[in-house]
Structure formats: C-alpha cells, structure tokens
Specification:
Blueprint (H helix, E strand, L loop, with lengths): L8 H6 L9 E6 L5 H12 L6 E5 L5 H8 L14 E5 L11 H15 L3 E5 L1 H8 L3 H13 L4 E7 L2 H6 L1 H5 L2 E10 L2 E11 L9 E6 L2 E5 L16 E2 L6 H4 L4 E2 L3 E6 L5 H14 L4 E5 L4 H10 L4 H7 L2 E5 L2 H4 L1 H15 L3 E5 L1 H7 L2 H17 L3 E7 L20 E10 L2 E11 L9 E6 L2 E7 L3 E2 L7 E2 H9 L2
Parallel strand pairs: 1-5, 1-6, 2-3, 2-4, 4-5, 12-16, 12-17, 13-14, 13-15, 15-16
Antiparallel strand pairs: 6-7, 7-8, 8-9, 10-11, 17-18, 18-19, 19-20, 21-22
Helix pairs in contact: 4-6
Amino acid sequence: MRRISTGIAELDLVLQGGLMPGSLAVLAGAPGSGKTILAQQVCFANAHPDAKAIYYTTLSEPHSKLVDHLEGFSFFDPGAIGKSVEFRHLASLGTGENVTMADVSTEVVRHAFEQRPSIIVIDSSKALHEAEGPGFRKSIYELASRVAHTDALLMLVGEYELEDIKTAPEFAVADAILYMANDGSGKADHRWLRVSKLRGSDYLGGRHTFRIGQSGISVYPRPESTLAPPHGESEGRISTGFPGLDEMMKGGVPTGSVTIVAGPSGAGKTVIGLQFLTEGLARGETCLYVSFQESERQLLDKARHFGWGLADAAASGALTVTHVQPVELGLDVVAAEIRRAAVATGAKRVVIDSIAELEHSADRDRFSDYLWALVGSLRHGGATTILTSETSAFFGPAFELAHGLSYVADNVVLLRYTELESEIHRALVVVKMRESDHVKSLVEFEITPQGAKVLGKFAGVSGVLSGNPTPTEQRFKEFFGK
C-alpha cells in the first residue's frame, strides 16, 4: 500500500510507513505544541513542481511572517516558495472574517483538481469549526470526500484539547489523528505525540517523545512499541576478562545475554564493565560504553590507571564512549541515542553504567518494560550487554534490584562489602544465570592494579553476604544452643 512519507523517518516508523494518499489527517494539540512546524515539514518533504503542497491559513497573519519562522530550519527551501509550496489566505475568500465552509470547499476542491497537489493543509481548522457551528461535520466530510478523488493528503491543523478528540466531528471523519503536546515536568518540558487513529493500518501506540531543533521535528519512538524479535539460543560464551568470574560462570557469559552487575558505590562495577570491554577489544570486537555519571575523559583516565589502552581504542573507533544525561534528554531520547550508537559502531559488547539513572527518570510501572525493550534491541543487533545497578546498602542483609529487573537480566552478579577481622573486604556471588549452571560460592575479590580478580572462597565463616560474617563453629553452637 502506497504511503506519503512525513519526511521524518522515525515518525514514518510510528505510522508504519507514513500517511495514506487521499486521506484526511488531523494534527491536534495546544498552541505551541509544534503542529505548524510538523505540517510544514511534511509539505516541504513531499512538494515538487508537478505535485505542489498548498498551505491554507485561516488568519490574516502575513505569510512573510510564516516564512521568517521557517528560515531557521534545514528542511526549509526558500526556492520552493511559489513553485512547489504555495501559501494561501482563506480569509480573503469572504468579507472580513466571515468565511463559510462552502467558500473553503469551493476554493480547496478547485485547486485540488486543477493543480493535483500532493498535500493540502488547512491551518487552523478549529477556527473554521467555530465559525461553521453544527453543520461542520457534514461540510468537512464532503470536503474530504471530494479531495480524496485527487489522491491529495488533506491535513487539518487545529488547537484542540484531548477531550475534543472524543466529541469534535472532524475527528470522527478523520482517517488519521496525531495529537501533539508539550508538558511541563519539573524544570524541563517534555514534548510528545501520539497516534490516536490510523484508519486501515496498524501503528506504534503510546506516547512518543519528539524534539524541535534545527532540522525541525525529530521523533523518538518509545522502545516498548518497537519490540525486537525473540532472542534465539546463545552461540557459545565470551570471556568477561575478569579472572575467576569466567570459571564461576562455567566459561563466561553467554553471547547475546544481558548481565546485571549490582552493588553499592565503589564496589567495582565500573571497573568490571571496563574490564569486560578491554577483553572484547583484545579480541577485535567493537565496543560501546554508555555512562550516565562519568565523562569519557574520566573513564579513559580510570582505564589508563589499570594499564588498559582504551584511549587508543576510542581514537581508532573500536570503542565508543557515550555520556548522556537522562533527566535532561528523556528516556526515549536516551534509548534512541544508545541504539543509534550501537548500530553505527556494530558494537558486540555494550556496557550501560548505570541503570539507576534511567530508573529515576522513569515511571515505576514503565521502567522494566522500557529496559526490556532497550536491551532487546541491543541483543537483536548482536551485542552482549552488561548493566550496572547501584544498590543502596553498603552493609547488612538488604539486596534489592530495581523494580521488575528479575526478568530483564539473564545473569545477575552481586557485589557486597563485608567486614572481616576489622577490615573491609569485597564479596561477589553469581546470583542467577538463566538456563545455565554456575558456581554458587560466595567469593572474595579485590581491585588490583590489573583490574578485578577473584581471590577465592570465604572459608570458616558464614553471613558474609549480610556484611557481618561470623565463624562457622560459633554459628553451629548458637543453632544448637550449646
């Protein structure tokens, strides 16, 4: 089925290819939500001299002012004005502001059949609705039906609220409805759009983040709406580069798997992540490190202290370090940045450090599904992924992963601090490996000048995981009351 591209690849993905020729689409939203920019971007993406875009305005604002507002966008082509993109005033059809739908229909239909445009936009249709009153539904239906015979896409742009979609007649007639919003959240604004209706076609549901920049509208589909194909069986194992951990995991982590390394601040999560990528680089694999805390310079300096030449790998393109701020960018933008970097580099190993920042930016009910979709897309691209997760307790029995992560991770490695003979020691245990055996022993590890290294099993004590180990013999006597 032929579609008309919006000129925005990610929005076309949401629309499953674009909008239908001969259909009626409504762009709805409050003032300032980005409707006019999107409508004009669609026009310039599709217009050419043999199939123009005609942009009708219902207000008497000079078109020169509209053009001035477009000049900052890269999609705008000043040479197209008058040749492939025409701006027309509907207000000039009547006396004063008294423009009827009959006048509008006559004008629009005549140009639709005479010029055979690809796109016809009426901005704002809400003004026409208010002027026409109860007869607007019939009028808009007749207009859309007649324009459809020319295969032109008729697009109505209006200042509507969400409640209007349920009651306003133009939405009942419409073949496609896109609602756009700009919500304030704390100190930042969050722009999103949603497809409320797309007649005769499936689409990606939910709220999709978008931003307005120099290129115009950029859309970031929510990861949950673009699920990757199911993960197949692993094709072997790869080394973590962490001496001792590979043995505990019976040969390393399965290829394509997702491993969570969880522990308190300073326990060694970042070092293990860097070590994992260093091993991959030594094997000729491209790698991606996504950091929400430390900058690229800080990470490369940290690696240099361990003798790992990650700076050279970054310079050659074998390693990509991406430093993002999820609170400022928004979750959907972060996911898009990560997927874009993974695809561009062909990354075989990915570290995301840490998912705590993502969790803080997400609704509790959404986070696990979001993360599942994100790592699923990385897995589909052939990457084996480590996620670090910061736990709150330095000592004591508390151990709780971020909400809903039990089904996201294939493997879980827990790091803890523990006190032993008045000294702080680091403890590690492989809590989970999906469909694979592993060593269940609690072991001590340390951060050496060469990186993390397993020293051996804790012997003669119990309660190490709680952070308060006691000699095994003493625990035995307490249990039997002797």
